[in-house]
Amino acid sequence: MTNVRPKKHLGQHFLDDMQVADDIVNAMTQHGGYNEIFEIGPGMGVLTTRLMKKEGIKTTVVEIDSESVVYLENEVGLPKEQIIEGDFLKLDIDKIAPHPVGLIGNFPYNISTQIYFKILEHKDQITECVGMIQKEVAQRIATKKGGRTSGILTILVQAFFDVEYLFTVPPDVFIPPPKVESAVISLKRNDRKELPCKQETFFKVVKQAFSTRRKTLRNALKPYGLPAEMLAEPLFNKRAEELSVEDFIDLTLRIEETRK
């Protein structure tokens, strides 16, 4: 069978550097004690072939491209029952993975942000993730408190995962080369079982605070109708990007208190 054609509408850029592939797979540590890895968008299986060599680990791939599905079964030799043909974003994770799993992949850049929101939805099942995404998004997710690239995903992901920026990947190791640099980041589930505030409120406060990122919290959080004496505090002179996860948790607790 001939090679699989990268398809622009699926955001496919196939990795063509074996050392980078080794580095991505070797970054998986079985954090959380899982024995199954889900790979998103395996394409021609450059990561898959390496994952299949891991002892005691089952490799299950999720691939939306039917041409790749045929290639993975016939050329890579992955058993049919370990291939899920479909859209990862639409999968019922609770049904297919009621146990802890690791997640890996050269994620399609057009849905990479949505993949991380999906991970958050299933944070107690996905205990580790090593993903290659566009560098800009990787920096945003991995940035520390006060970073200019800080955003909604920074806070939401870091509330439940320890995040590490592993390495940058140049465009020329892909077929076809993307127009931007890529990066590999690692997520490992932290010890926080649940938030001391309501998770739904926390998510809403973070999203509202970053909705007008050039404004101070005093202006960004106006829809909450907070008391004037509270808004007069120095905290509300800050912008969302200046706050840490713990700052947002404390802020959410205080907002909840005003609504009692």
Automatic annotation (TrEMBL):
<keyword id="KW-0698">rRNA processing</keyword>
<dbReference type="InterPro" id="IPR023165">
    <property type="entry name" value="rRNA_Ade_diMease-like_C"/>
</dbReference>
<feature type="binding site">
    <location>
        <position position="13"/>
    </location>
    <ligand>
        <name>S-adenosyl-L-methionine</name>
    </ligand>
</feature>
<comment type="similarity">
    <text>Belongs to the class I-like SAM-binding methyltransferase superfamily. rRNA adenine N(6)-methyltransferase family. RsmA subfamily.</text>
</comment>
<feature type="domain" description="Ribosomal RNA adenine methylase transferase N-terminal">
    <location>
        <begin position="20"/>
        <end position="191"/>
    </location>
</feature>
<dbReference type="InterPro" id="IPR029063">
    <property type="entry name" value="SAM-dependent_MTases_sf"/>
</dbReference>
<dbReference type="GO" id="GO:0052908">
    <property type="term" value="F:16S rRNA (adenine(1518)-N(6)/adenine(1519)-N(6))-dimethyltransferase activity"/>
</dbReference>
<feature type="binding site">
    <location>
        <position position="106"/>
    </location>
    <ligand>
        <name>S-adenosyl-L-methionine</name>
    </ligand>
</feature>
<keyword id="KW-0694">RNA-binding</keyword>
<dbReference type="InterPro" id="IPR001737">
    <property type="entry name" value="KsgA/Erm"/>
</dbReference>
<keyword id="KW-0489">Methyltransferase</keyword>
<feature type="binding site">
    <location>
        <position position="15"/>
    </location>
    <ligand>
        <name>S-adenosyl-L-methionine</name>
    </ligand>
</feature>
<feature type="binding site">
    <location>
        <position position="87"/>
    </location>
    <ligand>
        <name>S-adenosyl-L-methionine</name>
    </ligand>
</feature>
<feature type="binding site">
    <location>
        <position position="41"/>
    </location>
    <ligand>
        <name>S-adenosyl-L-methionine</name>
    </ligand>
</feature>
<dbReference type="InterPro" id="IPR020598">
    <property type="entry name" value="rRNA_Ade_methylase_Trfase_N"/>
</dbReference>
<dbReference type="GO" id="GO:0003723">
    <property type="term" value="F:RNA binding"/>
</dbReference>
<comment type="function">
    <text>Specifically dimethylates two adjacent adenosines (A1518 and A1519) in the loop of a conserved hairpin near the 3'-end of 16S rRNA in the 30S particle. May play a critical role in biogenesis of 30S subunits.</text>
</comment>
<protein>
    <recommendedName>
        <fullName>Ribosomal RNA small subunit methyltransferase A</fullName>
        <ecNumber>2.1.1.182</ecNumber>
    </recommendedName>
</protein>
<dbReference type="Pfam" id="PF00398">
    <property type="entry name" value="RrnaAD"/>
</dbReference>
<keyword id="KW-0808">Transferase</keyword>
<keyword id="KW-0949">S-adenosyl-L-methionine</keyword>
<keyword id="KW-0963">Cytoplasm</keyword>
<dbReference type="InterPro" id="IPR011530">
    <property type="entry name" value="rRNA_adenine_dimethylase"/>
</dbReference>
<dbReference type="GO" id="GO:0005829">
    <property type="term" value="C:cytosol"/>
</dbReference>
<feature type="binding site">
    <location>
        <position position="63"/>
    </location>
    <ligand>
        <name>S-adenosyl-L-methionine</name>
    </ligand>
</feature>
